[in-house]
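Run log // design_07
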């Protein structure tokens, strides 16, 4: 391997490694939530957390454009050496995040009622799911602020910032889960309360880390730049397209859970566990996508075509290697992991039946994850929106309705076709975009 290539591989891993560690704490937390609920004597608690987590995937991860939009804008400002714009990007994103979080709290009642109507949980699950929602919503400003902070850290090519922030959030969340549920005897309400407290701790640490990093970039805070119409218009334009894209993605995940709920508590619980495998793989591969975001954005900001191509090539290489490893791990150890997550025999039996879909998922999904990173770094939000809408509306939903006679196998096949469509459509546009 040439010295220049070795340097590029090290550059990717320097950003990706801490991000992978921080990213996988998210699904690991989901697995702990699942395990804590899965060992309670009634499947309705596991179903309630699955429903509640799906709702907040829409409400919170639906606003993940705050992270992606901040990353692209910050990475390009970093590549151009504009320290004032680096500050403005962070300030604008943080203010927008807190404002949206406060609005979600104000609108919590209609949001909860609409969510429960759309997902239509069983009557036994509904009270627990409603309690989970009513507590978890109070963490909205913290959660969205953390999205903005993580996006800014990635744009600054800092893998350690997100690592420290996410470790603080998720490790404290896990400890509080165990305290509230195992120690005190709470159920879904304990899981929700743990999340709110942990997100607040993460926000405090993230702001402190950002202030420290800005000391090495001696720019200045400017009210004029914070309210600059051109910069705000660009941020809103990027974020509005990313909002549509992200809501479409979360609709795809939410649709899977909603259709699972309509097949009964056992299928809902089984698919909730299987989705933890999907999330674990996705968040790990996102580490390389995040590295691509930072390196691609910086290359575009510096108008360096060669650095752009190297960033994409090296990030793709490692993404494929890690995806293959995940498929192998799921094949060899999937049943053992499942047994750790739930002791309910009917749920275990159902999970075993549908596990092959999760085994092939990494190799089918990896392409869309990597291209997400490239498009975010290039602030190509409109193209991300269009490919996502195509994949959901033209491929996923029609495929599901055609494959309904296959039951839950048909639901998972439609989901895999959706992931493939994302990768193929993004590759098609990638070849036709002038990136630098």
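design_07 sequence
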């Amino acid at each position: 391997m040439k010295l220049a290539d070795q340097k590029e591989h090290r550059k990717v891993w320097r950003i990706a490694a801490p991000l992978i560690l921080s990213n996988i704490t998210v699904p690991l937390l989901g697995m702990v939530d699942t395990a804590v609920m899965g060992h309670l004597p009634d499947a309705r608690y596991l179903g309630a957390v699955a429903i509640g987590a799906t709702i907040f995937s829409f409400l919170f991860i639906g606003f993940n454009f705050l992270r992606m939009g901040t990353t692209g804008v910050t990475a390009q400002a970093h590549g151009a050496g504009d320290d004032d714009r680096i500050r403005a990007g962070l300030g604008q994103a943080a203010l927008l995040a807190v404002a949206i979080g406060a609005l979600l709290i104000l609108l919590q009642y209609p949001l909860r009622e609409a969510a429960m109507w759309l997902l239509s949980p069983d009557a036994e699950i509904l009270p627990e799911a409603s309690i989970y929602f009513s507590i978890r919503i109070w963490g909205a400003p913290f959660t969205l602020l953390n999205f903005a902070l993580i996006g800014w850290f990635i744009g600054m090519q800092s893998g350690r910032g997100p690592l420290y922030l996410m470790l603080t959030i998720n490790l404290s969340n896990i400890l509080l889960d165990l305290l509230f549920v195992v120690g005190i005897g709470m159920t879904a309400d304990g899981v929700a309360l743990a999340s709110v407290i942990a997100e607040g701790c993460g926000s405090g640490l993230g702001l402190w880390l950002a202030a420290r990093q800005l000391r090495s970039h001696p720019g200045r805070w400017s009210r004029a730049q914070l309210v600059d119409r051109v910069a705000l218009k660009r941020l809103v334009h990027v974020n509005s397209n990313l909002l549509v894209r992200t809501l479409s993605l979360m609709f795809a995940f939410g649709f899977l859970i909603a259709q699972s709920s309509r097949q009964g508590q056992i299928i809902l619980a089984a698919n909730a566990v299987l989705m933890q495998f999907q999330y674990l793989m996705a968040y790990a591969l996102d580490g390389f996508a995040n590295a691509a975001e930072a390196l691609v954005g910086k290359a575009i900001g510096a108008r360096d075509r060669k650095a752009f191509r190297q960033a994409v090539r090296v990030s793709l290489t490692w993404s494929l290697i890690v995806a293959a490893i995940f498929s192998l791990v799921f094949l060899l150890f999937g049943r053992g992991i499942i047994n750790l997550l739930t002791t309910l025999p009917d749920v275990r039996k159902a999970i075993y039946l549908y596990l092959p879909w999760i085994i092939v998922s990494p190799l089918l999904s990896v392409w869309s994850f990597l291209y997400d990173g490239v498009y975010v770094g290039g602030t190509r939000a409109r193209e991300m929106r269009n490919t996502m809408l195509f994949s959901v509306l033209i491929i996923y939903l029609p495929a599901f309705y055609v494959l309904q006679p296959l039951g839950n196998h048909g639901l998972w096949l439609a989901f895999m076709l959706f992931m493939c469509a994302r990768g193929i459509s993004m590759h098609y546009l990638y070849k036709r975009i002038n990136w630098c």
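The chain has a mean pLDDT of 84.
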